[in-house]
Design a protein that fits this description.
The structure is a single chain. The chain is of the alpha+beta class. The protein has one domain. Helix content is 32%, strand content 30%. The chain has a seven-stranded antiparallel β-sheet with strand order 1-4-5-6-7-3-2, with helices on one face. It is globular, with a radius of gyration of 22 Å.
């Protein structure tokens, strides 16, 4: 019996265990030059055009979702609201995407949020290297008159995904708590107004 087992193991060795690639992670820190470039970008026509387009598409999504541009999707579930801009389907540059990513962080911070974490992680995914820049923001703690924690729009995650250093998409997601300790999340439309006016 052991001879047969050895013979099968010799001729039919077990498949090697799949080794999952380990993502490389580091803090996301912009240089003073990068900060200056993005600050100037917020005054550009590209910034205004992107904000106007996002605002108009959100209005379209609310009234006529079938008429939306294919470069943009909105998320609307009971616990999560947000959007994905498919930059790979647009003519916007990498600089436009990076600066808009940081601009959105600033707009969320202006809604009484705090920056919890900004990081970059990279992982090899088949034929491409995927790099994800992420801002994770949480509402500043406060309690309403009933003793419930104000969660505002919930935790906000903004991710910029690049494939082989080419921008693929940007995702913003507000995830609300459904716990009895928290006040109901505010309407996502209020956040959208704060993001793009």
């Amino acid at each position: 019996m052991s001879f047969l087992r050895r013979w099968f193991k010799f001729w039919f060795p077990p498949a090697p265990a799949a080794v999952a690639p380990v993502p490389q992670r580091e803090l996301l820190v912009r240089t003073p030059t990068e900060l200056e470039v993005c600050e100037q970008w917020t005054q550009s026509a590209a910034c205004q055009q992107l904000k106007d387009w996002l605002k108009n598409q959100y209005r379209t999504f609310l009234k006529y979702p079938a008429d939306m541009d294919e470069e943009l999707d909105f998320l609307d579930t009971p616990s999560s609201k947000g959007f994905v801009i498919h930059f790979s389907k647009t003519d916007y540059t990498k600089q436009d995407a990076v600066c808009f990513f940081d601009y959105l962080k600033g707009q969320v911070l202006a809604q009484h949020y705090k920056a919890e974490l900004s990081d970059i992680r990279s992982i090899q995914r088949g034929a491409w290297l995927e790099t994800i820049q992420r801002h994770y923001l949480k509402p500043r703690s406060s309690v309403n008159d009933s003793g419930l924690i104000r969660q505002r729009f919930g935790n906000v995650t903004i991710e910029l995904v690049l494939r082989n250093q080419v921008v693929h998409h940007l995702r913003l997601r507000a995830t609300a708590y459904s716990d009895h300790l928290y006040q109901d999340a505010w309407d996502f439309q209020v956040l959208m107004d704060g993001l793009v006016g």
